[in-house]
Amino acid sequence: MVKFARPIHPGEFLREEYLVPLGMSAGALARKLNLPRTRIERIVKEEVGLTPDTALRLARFFNTTPEFWMNFQKAYELETEARKIAAELEKIVPMDAAA
Predict the structure, then answer these.
(1) Which Pfam families does the UniProt entry name for this protein (predicted)?
(2) Which partner for 11 in 36, 43, 68, 71 could form a disulfide, CB atoms 3.0-4.6 Å apart?
(3) Terminus-to-terminus CA distance in the chain, angstroms?
């Protein structure tokens, strides 16, 4: 697996690409999404990941797709886990395609 950079948490992306440029607080976004303020605060602090519910709401508000947000979450989780278990993964011998 080629590694180019550290994995980007979807909360970092939300914070840096949406909230900061818009001058919007996590609390303000939470109100617009009809969510508890703490949910968005914990996401942008990178303490928790996105749920499908949150992805659907972000997609609606920012005119994106829920897949856009969930793909960020999935990529972050896969890369983070791959780094954690890299030594174990190296021990696995791939199955021979001809077998």
Answers:
(1) HTH_3 (PF01381)
(2) 43
(3) 23
pTM for this model (two decimals): 0.85
Q: Amino acid letter at 50?
A: L
From residue 92, alpha-carbon distances to 83, 85, 89 in Å are 15, 11, 5
Question: What is the pLDDT, as a whole number, of residue 2?
Answer: 52
Give per-residue burial for 49-81: e unless 16+ CB within 10 Å, then b.
bbeeebbbbbbeeeeeebeebbebbeebeebee
Band of the pLDDT at 6, cuts 50, 70, 90?
confident
64/57 Cα distance (integer angstroms): 10
pLDDT of residue 97: 65
Mean pLDDT of the 14-33 span? 98
